[in-house]
Amino acid sequence: MESRAIASYQTPSGQKVKIVKRFFSSFRKRPTKRIAFISGLHGNELEGIYLCHLLILYLKELKKNQPEAFLGEAHIYPAVNPQAIATGTRLWPFFSTDINRQFGGGNGNSLPSQCAKELLNDLKSSADIVVDFHASNLHLKEAPQIRIVDGLHKKLIPLAVQCNVDLVWVHPASPMFESTLAYNLNQSRIPTLVVETGIALRINQNFANRLFQGMLNLLRHTGVIVASNSQSKVDYPVIVHPSQVTLLKSSHAGLFVGHADLKNNITKGEIIGEVVNPSDGEVLQKVTAPENGLLFTIREHPLVYSGAPLARMAHKYIG
Asked: Recorded GO terms, molecular function (predicted)?
């Protein structure tokens, strides 16, 4: 394994900070493919950082014992927003900037913008495929999923189905995506998958282990590595478009008490949870599944207001 700092800077307090990537070179002169894994764009999304740890651990051992297995290159950027990670916050400290809204043109010359530019340029020069790891916010828990902007699905779904996720969700295009890392890489014709899993400031080892197996499968599928050890089974995901996703919202302010966890086979009428008024013992809303399907988002934060998201379901899907 080799390491290189792609950007470095000094904080207002005088601390020196580096954004580092780890990479595993090819045994061949001409690598088959070059895959990059990114985590930590948001400092409170720890699932991807742990997943990068699992990948580095595995690839170091493989490189030591079977260097000829590397027909391509693997580049891992485990913590691209170090200060936000150190404070456990979504935004870059001091600037209160979302670094995943700093890619593309016209974002000024601030430190986060400069680092975003360095990261984007490094990826463009060293990756053929990119996987960008994210977690949810503090309110919602997400099943392992890949989100794809409509129009890119024909190119990205064949890669996404190799990743051992529950769901591939094709989103309509929106101007809000145009300043993200994934959008700009895809526009540069570097296929980029956005993985979302778990919840902010937490690590779900079950989700991480499943995605770890999915990433190894992707590395094998693309010819980056050829490993002699046995491969774990990878499940085919549900593939949905916006019309196949139902968002369930709260009709009242109160406390949401969940009665169901993320699951593949929730049935119509099954209770997902309740919104209660704790001051008078009243059940304000019973939240039930409107159809059979996959419950892939569930609210974890109990405090709700009218219109707050409680759950998401996929129905009438392929998979």
From this structure: hydrolase activity, acting on ester bonds; metal ion binding
Do 208 and 65 fall into the same domain? yes
Same domain flag for 232 and 250: no
Whether residue 319 lies inside any domain: the answer is no
What is the torsional sign of CA 53, 54, 56, 57? positive
Nearest CA among 144, 138, 264, 163 for reference residue 207: 144
Number of domains in the chain: 2
Q: For 245-300, what is each residue's pLDDT tens digit?
A: 999 999 999 999 999 999 989 999 999 999 999 999 999 999 999 999 999 999 99
Angle 241-232-156 from CA coordinates, rounded to 5°: 30
Q: Which of 272, 271, 263 is nearest to 293 (CA)?
A: 263
Residue type, 105: G
pLDDT of residue 44 exceeding 80, the answer is: yes
What torsion, rounded to 10 degrees, do the Cα atoms 247, 248, 249, 254 define?
Answer: -140
Residue 11's pLDDT band, with cuts at 50, 70 and 90, is confident
Residue 181 lies in a domain: yes
Integer angstrom CA distances of residue 234 from 106, 164, 181, 211, 228 = 41, 5, 27, 10, 17
Phi, psi torsion values for 307, nearest 5 degrees: 95, -5
Q: Are 110 and 96 in contact (CB under 8 A)?
A: no
The domain that holds 288 is classified in CATH as: 2.40.50.100
How confident is the model over 108-150, as pLDDT tens digits?
788 999 999 999 999 999 999 999 999 999 999 999 999 999 9
Domain end position, chosen among 187, 203, 238: 238
Kindly provide the b/e burial profile for residues 189-214, where b requires at least 16 CB atoms within 10 angstroms of the residue's own CB.
ebbbbbbbbbbbbbbbeebbebbbbb
Residue 58, domain extent: 2-238
Biggest CA-to-CA distance, the chain: 72
- CA separation for the pair 67, 225 (Å, rounded): 10
- For residue 278, the Cα-to-chain-centroid distance in whole angstroms is 35
